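Justification of computing resources. Each target in the renewal requires a structure prediction run like the one illustrated here; the chain below, 154 residues long, is used simply to show the kind of job we budget for.
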Amino acid sequence: MSEALQPIFAIEKIYLKDLSVEAPNTPEVFAEREAPTVNVDINSQAREVEPGMFEVVLKVTITAQSKDKAMFLVEAAQAGLFQIRNVPAQDMGPLLGIACPNTLFPYARETISMVTSRAGFPPVVLAPMSFEGIYQQQVEQQMLAAQAAGGKPN
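Resulting structure tokens:
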């Protein structure tokens, strides 16, 4: 196989695209002794910015609440620019939905931990995760939506 047709998967750039921290009820919430309820929402999106170059954004939203008061809200959009060429079409979904988010996750994890700590709270350390399950759920949802619409899945 010639070198020109070899699959290419390369990280071009990893960057923090957006970051938001809100702690609306400070300093009063620092006196709370009850452990807060912490919710984590993670999703990713991919788009082709030019032929063979894809931006993948991993968005992590963390909310913490104690009793009826919001302690903090952190939203981080960790992004990466990936060069992906000469890859079969059927392999693009798993690359963009699993491999790229898995690459970005440690960076997002570090950002969330640092930001919650800097906001005066114990650091939120996200458990390691694999994006394969999330990707499979997205594929299943697309298939169900296509079936409900009477069409074929993408």
